[in-house]
Amino acid sequence: MRKNISAIMAAILVIGLLSFLPVLTNADPSPPEGEVQQVWVRMRGIIDLWGSTPVFGWIGAHARIVNTTETYREWARAHAIWSEEPHRLNCTEPPTENFTFTLYATRLINSSIIELDYNGYDFYVEGQWDVVKITTTVYIDEEGELINITRTLEPIVTNATGELRVFSNWTQFEISITGLDLLSGRVTMHVIGYMEIKICDMNGDGRVRIEDLVRVAKRYGSRPGLGNYDFEMDFDNDCEIGIGDLTTLAANMEG
Amino acid sequence: MQRIRLEKHFPNLFRVILFLLMLISASVFPKALMYSAQQTSATIYVSPSPITAAVGQKFSINITIADVFDLYGWEFKLGWNSTLLDVTNVAEGSFLKQGGSTFFTFQENDTSGFILVDCTLLGDLSGVGGNGILAIAEFCVKDSGESLLDIYDTILISSTELPIIHESVDGYGYFTPSHDVAVIGIIVSPTITLPDQIICINVTVENQGVYGENFNVTTYYDSVLIEKQLVSLNQGQRIVLNFTWDTTGVGKGDYKILAEASEVPGEIDTTDNTKIADSIITILSLGHDVAIKAVIPSKTVVGQGYSLFINITTKNYGSFTETFNVTAYCNNTTITQPNGKNYITITLTSGNSTIVIYTWNTSGFAKGNYTIWAYAWPVLGETHTADNTLVNGWIIVSMVGDVTGPDGWPDGKCDMIYDIRSVAKLFGVAPPDPRYNPNYDVNGDGKIDMINDIRTVAKQFGKTDP
What we know:
Shape of chain A: globular
Strand order of the largest sheet of chain A: 1-2-3-4-5-6-7-8
Largest sheet of chain B: 10 strands, mixed
Oligomer: heterodimer
Distance between the termini of chain B: 107 Å
């Protein structure tokens, strides 16, 4: 009797473990047989250092790399924000008092080189970058209600040559932009796919649907430093989850 | 046999297994509980349904939600028959707006006939509960018919970003022609009449559209006006109109009766606005009068020595029953029947017609073109004899195997391209197959077969008519 129970329990255990396999096997998929037409790359990371200054921030990159025949157009998106006030940037609660907060944002404007396994780097993007300094001032009334937000944008560099370099087996990265101290940090996630990795697929099910739209909508109006902001949902890189992000997502929905 | 006692040798194994099972359960059950917590009797459906609209009209349907709880975002597809409908507008309903600002978006595909519609609340808000309209879709009816208004791939999301279990109910639409009148019946009586009599014509017309219509109904014999009437019909109403045709002055003959309903403004389906009576009207002549109405040979090319049939339609236009002879001619030679006679005797009552079948065995006839005609011998007292003769076409008696040529007619030789291939391509073909060509049915047995037709032609391959 006990032997039978043992067998049943062992079977349940195996089935249970099998159900976890998709989660555990997060490795890069093998390329399909035959010539690879295009490769899709998505990465996320945390910025730790700006020159020698400890900072906190996020980087996101998304690219399509084509085969040598250049059947498809190659492109890359990359953007990052960081601040010397990590708690403010990473806050999850709405503000309760007046404050002024400074963050920096950069984004890739044009790319000239997009490669995997390039000169010792796991992933390499070269191109022109813009960097801006964003100063946000928040005014809260005596009852703790938000009454006003002002935001000023100050360009730091414009159309500067720069590189995103990922190395150490996809664990480290650097952003080197002319006129800006080196940004560096650690990679938190990367995916290499041979099927399209959709920009707005927030839940990773391969499709862009209402579930993704709702995720973004829940953070509508949020900005860095004001709580609830999600860097990954800021598709248009304007440091605000707004209508531009919703429409970008809607445009990527498939009928 | 000694049993292995695992629990004895590995006393902690079962504890480990139990611990792992608890871990699995802990990872699975909360999700199951969350889903079950979302179970509602929510229904997303099309309203009103069924819906009726006319061609050219616009109509709107609501995509409605009922008995939902904490709805934060939704998505659905709505499909339809794209040959009948075009979507003209899609708008957000009022339901989700109760919860705050919303983002609404849709994609339409008129070619495939569907829309994908999405809507979500904005911000960190609670969802909306109850009943209401999610979206409004407006369509234009292009054509009449029926269509499922198929709502599918529906997704409802709660404010906790969990799916809300629900069911969906399709709608249905009936799309009618908007302005549409039709002649649906025409009955004439009597169908055979003496000269100068009255013919009654009953025409049934119907308003098949959705509006009241005023229109004219006109009757004709052949293309000559008989009478016109104005009629008013409400939606779906039909009426029988009585027309009278005074045949005074109309000569003997056979006449088709046609009724026509005038086209009403906005009418698209005009194919049923005219109708021809099934029966023709025969107007007799007083006295004795027989006629040949048609002469139709079974083929136009026959191999020398083979037979063909000639169908001869005769009619008695007189006012008496007549017995008379009919003779068929090729050029000026009478065609002798297998029984040795060169005529067929028939009896016809007044106003009736019949078809007699002549068999022409071409043995002994030289190759060449023959004009075929028929002659009805005049009956006693007959004065109108012009229609006793009818010439109708000619027949080519050709060399056996020479069934066609470059111009579609025998060219004096039996070759592969025009003759053998033409016949072989129709192997096995027989009426009513529209491909059947009686000229290729060499022996005229009603089927193009291998032995009697294809082989007969093939055996003549290469021969030239001397």
